[in-house]
Design a protein that fits this description.
It contains 14 helices and eight strands. By secondary structure, it is mainly alpha-helical. The chain has one domain. The protein has a two-stranded antiparallel sheet with strand order 1-2. β5 and β6 form a beta hairpin. The longest helix is centred in the N-terminal third of the chain and has 27 residues. The protein is globular, with a radius of gyration of 24 Å.
């Protein structure tokens, strides 16, 4: 246990101390976004999830190093390395998504031609000056349009992240369901269920966002819940992965909560989804995982209702936050209609997730009634 505590402390500190440096680096690199729901619409560095990834990476690798050289309870190192590989692939995809700029909207073929004519009347020299307004926009801090990768490329890029979990035969190839009994999935589990599960979880975590600290806080609570469930079920590997993610998210939450000084970006939401999915699979917590993912599943259904064209965030009307649509296409929208502000929306949804996690731990972990 001392090795786990030491590694978690290191992961927390790396993230907490690294965010201030990351903010300067990201902003100076032009990787920033606009906080849509503030009156002054401040520009904030985005893709802060890279700091969470480094905290998670340090926590995981330090734990692996400590148990390799010291006496520790038996741990399946291959499972931890497989989870680390999957999360690293997803985090890279998220970061690529964050830094994508539609440069074609800014770099235009605007140029000036200056032609010099010699005494014979022939062209002597030609000077061409190109105009690159994007460079000026970023230098001046002007808002630039960021558009992530389209859905199909992201889906294809995500799929290789499941191969490490497949290689170590993670998860349960048979599942017991109430009233139905045991279902033997066989080869369907690694070839179909694992890829679809990773694809769904990594994307659905990205959907429930839009207010400062929401995606970070929700993922943090889910990670802590999975860590506790790992402890109750005796899965050390699940504890290490879940708590490493949880402490890194907790450190980042300090900066991302209202009013945020840094935005998480897809690098955080995709990373969180991949890590949570890895914990669920490696710890054989599929039923508990589905239970605590209820808010995200509902968010997916609401987004499906809009054809995945609706945004979770709202707009300020006379100083109050209001949804952009007549119907509710996100869990944040009914809360906006009740007059809740950005900070309150985040806290309410986090409280809902916390209650769901506690109920799930009692049902699945303590009593095992389901």
């Amino acid at each position: 246990m001392i090795y786990l505590v030491a590694s978690l402390a290191a992961g927390f500190l790396v993230t907490f101390l690294g965010v201030p440096f990351a903010r300067k680096y990201l902003f100076s690199s032009g990787i920033y976004g606009v906080d849509q729901q503030k009156e002054d619409r401040p520009r904030l560095p985005t893709s802060g999830g890279v700091t969470v990834f480094f905290g998670f990476l340090v926590s995981m690798t330090l734990y692996l190093g400590l148990i390799s050289f010291m006496s520790a309870p038996p741990v399946d190192v291959s499972l931890l390395l497989a989870a680390l590989s999957s999360v690293s692939i997803i985090a890279l995809i998220g970061f690529i998504d964050d830094i994508h700029i539609r440069i074609d909207e800014y770099v235009k073929e605007e140029y000036e031609i200056d032609i010099e004519i010699d005494e014979s009347g022939e062209e002597k020299e030609r000077h061409i000056e190109f105009d690159l307004p994007l460079i000026d926009d970023i230098a001046k801090g002007t808002e630039v349009h960021r558009e992530g990768l389209s859905q199909i490329p992201k889906m294809l890029f995500v799929l290789p992240a499941v191969f490490p979990l497949m290689a170590v035969r993670a998860g349960s190839w048979s599942m017991n369901f109430p009233l139905i009994g045991t279902i033997e999935w066989g080869i369907i589990y690694p070839l179909v269920l694992l890829p679809l599960g990773l694809l769904f979880v990594s994307n659905v975590v990205n959907m429930l966002a839009g207010t400062n600290g929401l995606s970070t806080g929700m993922s943090m609570i889910a990670a802590f819940g999975l860590g506790v469930m790992g402890y109750l079920s005796g899965s050390v590997e699940a504890q290490v992965i879940a708590f490493s993610l949880a402490v890194s998210l907790a450190a980042f939450f300090y900066y991302n909560f209202y009013p945020a000084s840094v935005l998480p970006g897809d690098s955080l939401t995709y990373l969180s989804g991949a890590a949570l999915f890895s914990v669920i699979v490696i710890g054989n917590m599929e039923k508990f995982g589905v239970f605590i993912f209820a808010p995200w599943i509902l968010e997916f259904l609401l987004k499906l209702r809009s054809g995945f064209n609706a945004a979770s965030w709202g707009e300020l009307v006379d100083g109050e936050l209001r949804p952009k649509y007549e119907k509710n296409y996100s869990l944040t929208h009914p809360l906006m209609r009740r007059g809740l502000g950005e900070k309150e929306i985040t806290l309410v949804l986090m409280a809902v997730e916390a209650v769901i996690v506690v109920v799930g731990l009692v049902l699945f972990g303590v009593y095992g009634v389901l």
